[in-house]
Design a protein that fits this description.
The chain is 59% helix and 15% strand. It is α+β, with helices and mostly antiparallel strands and 127 residues long. The protein has a three-stranded antiparallel sheet with strand order 1-3-2. A hairpin with a 2-residue loop joins strand 2 and strand 3 (70-77). Helix 1 (8-17) crosses helix 2.
């Protein structure tokens, strides 16, 4: 049976927890950093994903405290979460390696070619 690839929010959350436990707001900030500002996770999405990951056993509540009258949970990866993240990282690495290999092959085939010669080399037309 082939496992599905991780959805990006799951990948980002597990990555954010890979090096240290974090609470919700820190996770939002870390995800923005990891994604170079491309992903700004909303609180509703975050807590829904955290509940799902807790249920799947990929993360756990490492600590609970009250800060300014509000409950704050700190989350950490479980062993299963570390394994899932490592497996996904390897899957992504393999796909990226294959993509780079294919692109390099095409680049070498196309080097110095233009116009009709280029189109006949790649066997198609440009849209």
């Amino acid at each position: 049976m082939t496992e599905r690839s991780m959805q990006e929010p799951t990948l980002l959350l597990l990555t954010a927890l890979a090096d240290a436990p974090r609470h919700g707001y820190a996770l939002i900030q870390e995800i923005a950093t990891i994604s170079d500002g491309r992903v700004k996770m909303r609180t509703g999405t975050l807590y829904g994903a955290l509940d799902r990951l807790l249920g799947q056993g990929l993360i756990e509540v490492a600590a609970e405290e009250v800060v300014d009258g509000r409950a704050r949970r700190t989350y950490a990866l479980t062993d299963a979460g570390r394994t899932a993240l490592a497996t996904e990282a390897e899957r992504l690495r393999a796909v990226a390696t294959e993509a780079e290999r294919r692109l390099a092959k095409v680049r070498s085939m196309l080097q110095g070619k233009t116009g009709p010669e280029l189109r006949s080399t790649i066997g198609g037309s440009f849209a």
